[in-house]
Amino acid sequence: MTASRICFVGDSFINGTGDPEYLGWTGRIVAAACQAGEEITYYNLGVRRDTSADILKRWLPEVSHRLPPDCNGKVLFSFGANDIILEKGKMRVDLPDSLNHTWQILEQAKLLFPVLMVSSPPLGNDEDNLRLAALSNQFEQICLNLSIPYLDVLTPLQQSPIWLNEVAANDGAHPQSAGYAELAELVTNWIGWTSWINAKKA
Fold it and tell me: What percentage of residues in the chain have a pLDDT greater than 70?
């Protein structure tokens, strides 16, 4: 079996901020896949407060060091929450810029690697989540246009008492272990993920 190398690129939710077990959702889905027989080298490239603008600048050099051309390399992106946060009354990244950055990131990534995208999960503020849902819908359309599988975790987690309660009890943005486990379960059961990790390098 050819081992996969997977880079997870994004913000504090990729990083797993708030999880006392230091796994987040990405560590959990890789652990589950390996327990099921996959062989994966896991790179967590989540940076707190990173916006789409930050990720556009850094993703390719960071990923290229970890995924040389002769390996079975894959990249999963998840970001967006930091773009819609209000600072001084305006979003940190304007919507058209967010969409432009994301198109550039995904279009280039797809030429080089198998790519997935997972939406940002919800925050603890309803107004933030309205802006995040609008952004997530646009990201989903970009992925559709580029034929990149996209998973919406925002919608189901907005209905999750575990996620919402942990976010409220923690810092208002990030859950703890049980919340990340819920997010991980959504990804683990997604056919986009299961078929992707089973695909071997041509």
Answer: 98
Q: What tokens appear for 58 in the block?
A: 């850094």
**0.90 exceeded by the pTM?**
yes
C-alpha torsion angle, residues 78, 84, 86, 92 (rounded to 10): 80
pLDDT tens track for 155-185: 999 999 999 999 999 999 999 999 999 999 9
CA distance 104 to 183: 26
> Between β-strands 72-78 and 150-151, what pairing exists: parallel, antiparallel or unpaired?
unpaired
Upper half-sphere CA count for residue 158 (Cβ side, 13 Å): 16
- The C-alpha atoms of residue 57 and residue 41 are separated, in whole angstroms, by 24
Task: Give one word for 70, left, alpha or beta, with left for phi > 0 and alpha for psi -120 to 50.
Answer: alpha
